[in-house]
């Protein structure tokens, strides 16, 4: 006997039954209306996490102004709290993508630790996604289409209806006399997904009735293949993730040598896996930047610019610098009455271990030509001292230099340059990490 839609839903959601809360992405359309009704009904007979719904209002069409009221009415009738979020869609080349980005930012903002956001994408959505990405030349990761679950903020996004056909959703909605919104934009063939849905898929299913089912199955196979590629990437990255010589510099980095010994395909696979948590991935043509970075001479300090930051190579290590890495003023700060620690605008903080030195202290940043007295070595050019220490070039402009009047006293974190001649104090710097605002 074929299981009911409710039974299928419970089975898919069984791993998430102990979550602190379930939030339903409720557009008011057919798919999310069925999902909301199913869960609200099940909550009366099953022990489920607290349910709520969230409706994102994009403000892109006049008809949408009435949708929050409809969603509120449906939620009130089911006894499910509703949160309505109004977002600003940033203009760009793709209105579809901009609206999606705004929507998922709103979802992420409302999803707490361990909580689940449930969305109503179904089997045909999965098939359309696969075909759409295939036409765009996506790789295995893209062709795996939509995962059944993925991290979202501090919780997870779960798509429990990916194995459900539109016909099953329609039948459930009619059986329970549900009312839903028909979005006029879903018929606009200028949008690629609508063109696939209304022009391409009907022709495919006319010739191959099981086309959507088989395409969705292919997406599952590709998802499994991507899982194996991710396992291989973790094996290849294990040695490359060895710690750098600068534990205070909390930026993602990899040792280059373990990667250079891999085949070209394994290098790209490992780097895609590592970069996927940091930036939007480059297309095939832009991977030449990786080759240039990898093969540059050790003293060349090459960089590879990506969508959300850049990779820099220093000696035999590659470092990820988010786009906001250079977003600090570099202005001098008075430290005559030392606060310990001293907060640096957009640059973390500095602090003393031991008794702070006396006098008119200040924090400055490199301008070039700095000279420092080093015990036992006399006066030395700071640039040469930093070269000797191996401090990566990209961080040198952010090093907070300690001055007393016009005398350079210390460079934090650099052995031999961070302490007083008597050893009664030591200067430390804690730069911002990606988690603290550099992402």
Q: Mind explaining what this structure looks like?
A:
With 439 residues, this protein is an alpha+beta fold. It folds into three domains: 5-220, HUPs (Rossmann fold); 241-322, Uridine Diphospho-n-acetylenolpyruvylglucosamine Reductase, domain 3 (2-Layer Sandwich), CATH 3.30.465; 333-436, no CATH class. It has helices at residues 5-13, 30-42, 67-78, 95-109, 123-135, 140-143, 166-175, 192-207, 211-240, 256-260, 264-275, 288-295, 382-389, 393-396, and strands at 22-25, 51-57, 82-86, 116-118, 149-152, 155-158, 253-255, 303-306, 309-314, 317-322, 333-334, 342-343, 349-354, 361-364, 371-374, 378-381, 401-404, 407-410, 425-430. The strands form five sheets. It has a six-stranded mixed β-sheet with strand order 3-2-1-4-6-5, sandwiched between helices. Helix 5 packs across helix 8 (192-207) and helix 9 (211-240) packs across helix 11 (264-275). The protein is elongated. It starts with a helix and ends in a 9-residue tail after the last strand. The relative contact order is 0.08.
CATH architecture of the largest domain: 3-Layer(aba) Sandwich
Number of helices: 14
CATH topology of the largest domain: Rossmann fold
Separation of the first and last Cα atoms: 51 Å
Task: Name the structural class.
Answer: alpha+beta
Could you say which overall geometry the principal axes of the C-alpha atoms support?
elongated
Regarding quaternary structure, what we see is single chain
Task: Give the mean pLDDT.
Answer: 91
What count of domains describes the coordinates?
3
Poorly predicted spans = none
Spatial ordering of strands, largest sheet:
3-2-1-4-6-5
Give the helix level as a range of percent. 25-40%
